[in-house]
Design brief:
With 270 residues, the chain is α+β, with helices and mostly antiparallel strands. It is 45% helix and 11% strand. The strands form three sheets. It has a three-stranded antiparallel sheet. Strands 1-2 form a two-stranded antiparallel sheet.
């Protein structure tokens, strides 16, 4: 229930259903959950929730500062809280106008995540500094996502698999794919074939089938690079010729309409 609330609360108009116990008979109601939230933990978040957050990693102090605790009733904190309340009461209309007309250079999910912060930054005349921090934070987050992404690791390793041709696709048995990937990847206690199958199927790019020995996938290096591009994952320069070809190709996948790409916009390859 908490995950649903956090994941929905990033978009204006999003809501979650809860039972209203104050009416008879009890009934489900939609509750607006769009607002800022602060999540503090030491174990990290699931990838979906993580993608909706501005991540600030704090290091544990080894000095005497570790003994300092904030005193909520300290007059200094009360003074700051009062100033925040006064600022909002006096300036909410101006902030709302900025919000309504704000044009962000950030796109898609990043705009959703940073919009409120950038609006307030513009109100306080520190937009340039905050936007620079936002860009750096996004770069660090993307790097961490790539390094920890099992989808990326699977695709990257499959590019080196000798049984997969450059093009066109060839039907490869899941057992062969699993045996090859287990040489370089650790799947812990999980079933490797299930993990690999879930990631390949979730990309909605590779055709899945079945023969007498089990599941199969139609794979080619071209389609693997297409999958990498669709997720903005880095690609070795060894495959620049395929990347350039894909930039000028029209494809239809299971989850998109036909998309024409351009030479200068690899982000559009889906």
């Amino acid at each position: 229930a908490t995950d649903l609330l956090l994941n929905a609360g990033i978009e204006k108009g999003a809501s979650v259903k809860r039972v209203d116990v104050d009416v008879k008979p009890k009934r489900n109601r939609d509750y607006d959950v769009y607002c800022p939230k602060i999540i503090c933990n030491i174990t990290g978040l699931d990838p979906v929730t993580q993608s909706r957050c501005i991540t600030c990693n704090l290091a544990r102090t080894t000095t005497e500062k570790g003994n300092r605790k904030p005193k909520t009733n300290d007059p200094l904190w009360q003074e700051l809280r009062d100033a925040c309340y006064e600022a909002i009461m006096e300036s909410w209309k101006e902030i709302k106008e900025i919000y309504a007309g704000y044009k962000s250079e950030l796109k898609n999910r990043f705009e959703d995540v940073w919009l409120g912060v950038l609006v307030l930054a513009k109100f306080f005349n520190v937009e340039k500094d905050v936007l620079e921090y936002a860009r750096e934070n996004i770069r660090e987050t993307q790097l961490e996502d790539v390094e920890s992404s099992m989808t990326y690791k699977i695709l990257k390793n499959l590019l080196d698999y000798s049984k997969i041709p450059e093009m066109p696709e060839r039907t490869i048995k899941m057992a062969d794919i699993s045996n090859y990937l287990q040489i370089n990847l650790s799947f812990g206690e999980k079933n490797p074939e299930r993990v690999i199958g879930w990631h390949l199927t979730n990309l909605n790019i590779f055709k899945k089938g079945r023969d007498g020995d089990g599941m199969t996938y139609d794979l080619s290096k071209e389609k693997i690079i297409l999958a990498l591009l669709s997720r903005n994952y880095p690609i070795s320069e060894n495959y620049n010729n395929i990347v350039e070809k894909l930039h000028n190709t029209t494809y239809t996948t299971k989850t998109t309409t036909t998309t024409t790409t351009t030479e200068n916009s690899p982000e559009n390859v889906v």
